[in-house]
Amino acid sequence: MYMLSDNLALEVLAATPFEHDLKAAGLSQFGFATTDLGSSKQLPPTVSALYFFGNSSSTVRPCIGVGINYTTFFSKDLSSSAKNELAASSLDLDDSVGLSLRAGIDVILSDNWLLNASVWNIDIDTDASFNSALGKVKVGVDIDPWVYMISLGYRF
Q1: Number of structural domains the chain divides into
Q2: Is 123 helix (H, G, I), strand (E, B) or coil?
Q3: Contact call for residues 41 and 19 (beta carbons, < 8 A)
Q4: What is the domain extent for residue 146?
Q5: What is the pTM of this model?
Q6: Is residue 10 within 8 Å of residue 2, measured between CB atoms?
Q7: Could you point out which of 39, 44, 51, 56 has its C-alpha 20 to 30 Å from the C-alpha of 138?
């Protein structure tokens, strides 16, 4: 995080890859029972602008923020039920760009150390496509995770 002023900051959220299960809605209208499409790992780097309440000497500083997220997908695997029932193959997920919202609180422990608790909601919407018994299928996927974090920070 980089403080632009006593109350404004820029932050980059970077994390190790997350894995999500993918569910397909609407397949029952075609006579299929499965909703389990598969899974994918993803990296969701997010850049946010934050506003901190109070002044820089406050012991407790809540903040809110808004940001932009870019998500790329990899290690895409179809489930065995999708392969068997849908004759699915070649799962692909488009990259995603979306809005993120963040709320958090810093608790100052000493001159340099602080404890932070934060929560993000990240808008990750993508299109999944795969070959199937019906031909090429393209479906919308909404992942929209909630990310929670507790961290220990050092101020310079």
Answers
A1: 1
A2: coil
A3: yes
A4: 2-154
A5: 0.81
A6: yes
A7: 44
